[in-house]
Amino acid sequence: MINKFINQHILDLKKYDPVDSDKKLAEQFRLDEKDIIRLNANENPYGPWAGIKNSFSEIKFNVYPDSNQDLLRDSLSEYTGLDKNQIVAGSGADELIECIFKIFCKKNDVLVDVQPTFGMYSFLADSIGMKVIPFDRNSKNWEIDIGKLKSEISINSAKVIFLASPNNPTGNLLSNKDLKEILQMDILVVVDETYFEFCGETSAGMIKDYKNLIVLRSFSKWAGIAGLRIGYMLANSEVVDNVFKVKQPYNINVVAEKAAIVTLENRLDLQPNIEKILAEKEKFRNFINELAEWSMPFPSDANFILCKFAKNRGEFIFNKLAREGIFVRSFSNENLKDCLRFTIGTIDQMKKVKKVLLKL
Ligand SMILES: Cc1ncc(COP(=O)(O)O)c(C=O)c1O
């Protein structure tokens, strides 16, 4: 009876498929929780800056956080080189994606979803009753046919497009040339740079020339604080002003705020871990390349690698790894069948992955 009060598009909504907790995985695969190796969420296996916990001792937990995010935005301004009024932080990049839909979109507006990509774009669009039009990347190298994409945008009068660069799960970058072509259209363009620190490529410099460009970043991956939920947006100040209207006033809790500030102050200390991940990624890519004629890695500019295996091998390998406590990401999309995405773990974790794969 309660269903008659619930919006139809919510009744139709499929639940987002998040990564399972270690506890749940341990129960499901009859493992000891401490043996679980999480290579399924692109988390940083080395964790945060070493001094982070000590920095929390000064926090006043009884006081609400700064709704205006002044200290945090000052730090982000110094880090990004953009003006403070072009920056706003969110509870993960996820919250900012939701704010974008809230500000710019309504029921029946169109999102062209350039697939395969991060699932939250279409999930959050569905959650407000938008029309999601799928647009496939070229499955050989995951590049986008810009001519075709432009006509898809025009035909559907699409309101917004999200272009992750590097893209998750494919790992490839968006070229500046392709981005400019889309920016010249009448559409809001969100470049999601959640993996920026692993490649150093950014579109933030184009914000001054294109009012319709929004850049998203995150502390979840490079900074090793996914659990604290913090990300930020770079955009022109009119967009940022409107995010301040729709975001929850105290969206960044005091711990996340402090963590982000000390992470930025000590970012040089985190660089060696980023470099270890990148070096291990190259080693793993070569390993998959040489493993067998039925295994192929796609090039990646992020902290993960998408690998394609021979027909029906993906699920088999997923299960073999899972039985050893190693969890990678599998996919239900048709064009990612037989693909698995491996987050790059520590050197020891990757040794274990290779050992299991070699046994195959
Ligand atoms: C492309 C992309 N954007 C955004 C996110 C979410 O980031 P956050 O943890 O900051 O919400 C992810 C997480 O996997 C991602 O891959």
Description:
The protein is α/β, with parallel strands linked by helices. It has 2 domains: 2-47 and 270-359, Aspartate Aminotransferase, domain 1 (Alpha-Beta Complex); 52-267, Aspartate Aminotransferase, domain 2 (3-Layer(aba) Sandwich). The protein contains 13 helices and 12 strands. The protein has helices at 8-11, 22-28, 52-55, 70-80, 92-104, 120-127, 146-156, 176-183, 237-246, 254-265, 267-291, 313-323, 347-359; strands at residues 37-38, 87-90, 110-115, 131-136, 160-164, 188-192, 213-218, 231-235, 295-297, 304-309, 326-327, 339-343. Strands 2-8-7-6-5-3-4 form a 7-stranded mixed sheet. Helix 6 (120-127) links the parallel strand 3 and strand 4. Helix 4 packs parallel to helix 10 (254-265), helix 5 crosses helix 6 (120-127) and helix 11 runs parallel beside helix 13 (347-359). The protein is globular. The termini are far apart. The model has no long low-confidence stretch (mean pLDDT 97). The structure holds pyridoxal-5'-phosphate (PLP). The site of pyridoxal-5'-phosphate has 13 residues, from helix 5.
